[in-house]
Each structure stands twice: as C-alpha cells, then as structure tokens.
Amino acid sequence: MSAELVVSNLLNPPVLFFLLGILAVLVKSDLELPAPIPKVLSLYLLLALGFKGGVTLRESDGGLVLPALGAALLMALAVPLYAFPILRRRLSRPDAAAVAATYGSVSAVTFVTATAFLQRLGEPQGGYMTAALALMESPAIVVGMLLARLGQRNDDIQGQLTVLLHEALFNSSVVLLVGSLAIGYIAGKANGDVLTPFTESLFPGLLSLFLLDMGLVVGRRLGDLKRMGAFPIAFAFGLPPVNAALGMGIARLIGLPVGDALLFVVLCASASYIAVPAAMSQALPQANPALYVTMALALTFPFNVVLGIPLYMSAISALWP
C-alpha cells in the first residue's frame, strides 16, 4: 500500500515540477521565476486554502473542532520543548532554540500539498484543519525565544516579547490565512461558489508553478548541506517521523477521520522555513539562519512532500478502521 501511494505521489504533477526545479539547479539551468511571481503564488495558495477551509468548516462536524485545535496547540508547544534539549547537546543555545522553533512551527506549503494529495485520492477533509494550521504557526516562535533567553539576564525581554508576538500573530501569512478562513465561513457554500473557478480549477496548476519555484530554492540550498555536519542532517530527517507518529496517536485518540488525521500528522511533521526565519532574524540574530533554514527547506520539506505524505497516509489507512 505504501509503495503504491509513494509511486502515485511521485507521479503527481506538482511533485514532479518540484523535482524539476531541483534538477534545473543541478544542471545549472538559468530557469527562474521573476521575483514578484513566487510571492503572488504564495498569497494565492493561502487565500484559496483559507477560503475553501472556511466554507468546509461551516459544514463540518463541530464536535471535532475544539479537540483538533487543542491538539494542534499542544503539539506546537510540546515539539520545541522536547526538541531543544536534544539539539542543545550539539548546538549553541541560540541555534538550538531557533531549530526547535522551526520544527515546532509548520509549513503551509507542505499542508497545501497534502490537501492536493487528499483531493486526488477523493478523501474528504474538514475546514477546521486550516484553522489548526493558522494556530500552530506562532506558539513555537515564542517558546523558541524563551528557551534562548532562559538563564540569561535581559532587562528588555518584555519589550522583545511584545514585538515578537506582534510579528508572530499578525504577519502577512497569518492575516491572509485567518482572514480568508473567516470570509469563507461567513460566505458559506451558497455564496462561495462564485469563487470556485478561482480557488478550485486554478489550484493544481498554480501549486505546480509554486512548487517548481520551491524546487529551485531547495536546489540552491543543497550546497549548504556540506557545511552542516551529520547531526543536523540526521535530526532533519529523524524528527519528522517521530512527530508524525505522535500526531497519529493523538489523531486516533480524538477520533479524527482519515483525511483530517493526515493533515494533522503533516502539520506535526513539518517545519517552518518562512515564518520562523522572519521572526528569528529579529529575535535571535545570533542564531545561524543557514542552519535552521537549510534543515527545514532542503531536507525536511522535500522529505515530507516526496515521501512523507504518502507514507503517513499508508500508516493511517492501516491503523484506522
């Protein structure tokens, strides 16, 4: 079952375009997307994801919303707390805190890819998982900063926390995602159908274009792996399956259906390479972005997109009745 899902995922056009982007860099092609386009594509994916999630949320089982959001918050807080002491054995305190925050936060693009994977399988999904995505992005950033400051005297920690909280809660990704979710919920299916050609029909093609650009970005980061050493590489590949297994247990415990369970597991297993670097560059300038960005973007992200999603789905299919 897992082999079939992996092969099916590898033949999925968005994943193939992602691999094409990596290949283009390896063969030293001049292929690139002009600077404004990736930003526009990112905004489109967040808008479409949020709006569709809001419409679905209005019609979904309300009894699962609070348990799912509570579980999402729990994992967002727990992952950096147990990852930090492991990382601290080999990394400096700032680097360990930044990496811990990276893996406690989430990747919206991995989540979007998982939703497209479920659509190909015809597996339904609840809109509340989009709310879980928005909820999980910020807590780990705050936890990471607190772990970095632990035991250090800093008279302005309250002021730094205020700035960090504003950045974490009101950055453009969170505002657009939550705003689109709310608009989709308010509009509902009857009024939201007018956007169906925009949010549904265009989605696979624009996701393919965005993942092509992500492949180019990942390809350019591969050179940084030589300077990282074995421990960060092992951590970047090892922690996602552990987090996925924990997420799977929680999803089974609270009774999430198969599609939502996969999305929750993917959130637990992913790592942020956008929101956390933006926040950490301000809160922890002494941490090395070449380390935590490369781990999340060049290792964990490709692993999840190419292999992780179908493997997690295979495990869920075997464990769920």
From TrEMBL:
Keyword set for this entry?
A: Membrane, Transmembrane, Transmembrane helix
One Pfam family assigned to this protein is Sbt_1
Descriptive protein name: Sodium-dependent bicarbonate transport family permease
Source domain of life is: Bacteria
Residue ranges spanning the membrane: these are 6-27, 39-58, 64-84, 96-118, 130-148, 168-187, 202-219, 231-255, 261-279, 291-313
Alphabetized InterPro entries for the sequence: Sbt_1
Q: Lineage of this protein's species? A: Bacteria, Bacillati, Chloroflexota, Candidatus Thermofontia, Candidatus Thermofonsia Clade 3
Q: Does the keyword Nucleotidyltransferase apply?
A: no
